[in-house]
Every structure is written in structure tokens, then in C-alpha cells.
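Researcher: Sequence of Ferredoxin follows. Predict its structure.
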Amino acid sequence: MSVAASRCAARLIQRSLRLPLSTSSPLSSAIPQSSYQSTRLSIASTTRLPSTRPFSSSSSLLHGHLDPPKPGEERKVTFVDKEGDEHTFEVADGDNLLDIAQANDLEMEGACGGSCACSTCHVIVSDPDMFDKMEEPDDDENDMLDLAFGLTETSRLGCQVKMSKELDGLVVKLPTMTRNLQASDFAKR
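Model: Prediction complete. C-alpha cells:
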């Protein structure tokens, strides 16, 4: 281990143990000088340090979490799954159907993470009048819908449908199958 790497590891250990930082020698206040070198190397090589990556700062419990709607502002949405079972949820304005389904453990993949780059969150709006209340799908969504299995006149991508007052009471069906294109689907055989 290089000297620079040893110093960096020692600083990380100091921070994780909340030891005072010293400008003369790292860990000098916590470890006697005679055993400093061997202890520093053994701690640095055997201790798993906490991640310092900024994108890992949120709790894993918050992933896929939707904020509950404010009292009096609840919107109802019903999903009809592949078996015909209905699942009704109270949600907030702005929640999209993909997030709602995944937060409630319904079988909706969303392979692209809601970026409108696949058709695995395809839903079928049950009521044509409710479909007419929705904003028109943009070109990207229409392109992805062309790839969806079981496309209908009232098909939409769940990641693009955001709940609003106008959509209160929305009922959508999950198609019996989805089409998830992968690079291996195009491999030469």
C-alpha cells in the first residue's frame, strides 16, 4: 500500500471512528507511536469503510416510496391485474402509474426506470371517456407504444400517466404480457 493510500485510509478511519484529526500523524492520538505503522496497515486492510459516494446517501427504505396524499386531496386509481383482481389505491396528484404499481408490489416491470424508453409499463385505460381526459401522448411515448404487446386504442405507458383531479377514479388493466427487448434478442444465431 502506498503512503498516500495509507494516509487516505487513516483519514477515513478517523472520520468513521470520530477521532480527532491530527496534522502531524494520522491516528497519533488513538494509537501509540511504536505500533502506529503496523496497526495502521492492519486496520486499513481489514476494516470495511463506509461508502463516501454522494449518490448513496439516501436510505434504501425510501427507494420506491410515494408520499401519502394530503387529507382531502386523495385520488383513487384501480389496477386490474392479469388474473382480473382489482387493486385500488389512494394516491397524490403527480404520482405516475408505474411508481404507484411498483410501490404497491404490482407486477409492472418498468425496465427503463420510467424514462419512456421501453414498453414494459404498458397499461390499458378501461374507460374511453377517462382516456380522453388525459394529455395526448408525445412522440416518444407513441414510438414505445408501437412496441407494446396487445396495443389498444386506449393504451398508455404507465410511466407517462400522472394522476390528477381529472383522473380521479381511473381504472387501468395490466396486459397479459409485456415485450421487453434486450440486446440478446438481436444477436446473430
